[in-house]
Amino acid sequence: MLYLEKHTIITTVLRNIAVLSDLLPLILFIFFARSKKNIGLRVAFYIVVFSAFINFFVLSNRQAREYTFLIGRITTIFEYSLFSLLFFNIIVSRAFKKGIVVITILIGLYLLYDLFSTANNSFDSVPSGITSLTFLIYCIFYLFERVSDPTSLFLYSSPVFWVVVALIIYFAGTFFPFIYAQSHMKEDQFISEYDLIHDTLYIIKNLLFGFAMLIKDTTIKSPSSITKKK
Questions:
Q1: What is the pLDDT, as a whole number, of residue 99?
Q2: CA-CA distance, 148 to 142, in Å (whole number)?
Q3: How confident is the model at residue 5 (pLDDT cuts 50, 70, 90)?
Q4: In this structure, what DSSP letter does residue 57 have?
Q5: Of 1, 65, 132, 182, which one has the greatest count of Cβ atoms within 10 A?
Q6: CA distance 88 to 110
Q7: Measuring CA to CA, which residue among 87, 135, 88 is closest to residue 107?
Q8: Spatial CA neighbour of 223 closest among 144, 150, 147
Q9: Contact residues for 101 (Cβ-Cβ < 8 A; gap 6+)
């Protein structure tokens, strides 16, 4: 009993920290960002603004909490749209870009179908799992492309790099919890473990977003890196 009480306290505190962590990259972008025109920082900023709005103004309303799963589906669509735009802009390969367009349309249609056809009292396990896996593939390809570029000697000096790292950690860590959530979301023990994992990764993601805000984009583009790969 004492263990359960401690575990509940920890998850509650962690949840509050996770919600407040949205403010860190938001404030850093507004007042301290050195590369505000960077596509990675802009996407991260819009994502954080949307999350902060949901956490502080929507889910704080008791009546709105009844639509938590519906809000989660809308959030998935919003994040999927912005992150797809991000990778379309930062990936060089033309062939992969075409793949992103096709995948974005197909998955986008599925997300809309799921939004209007699935009951609002269930977790969007499959949509979240699909989008997480898709972004992991995008992240890995982006890093492979950058590492293969001989001009990317200081990859860590790009804000986009740290945004991508944040996405890898978050989506890799939440992939399996998302998959199992739909069938286990009514179990108290699973919910506690899910919140513990998700909120921890959520905080790490926002910390890395915040770190990215402070980095000045000093990456140098050579003619070989500017030229679109076939």
A1: 97
A2: 10
A3: low
A4: I
A5: 132
A6: 20
A7: 135
A8: 150
A9: 88
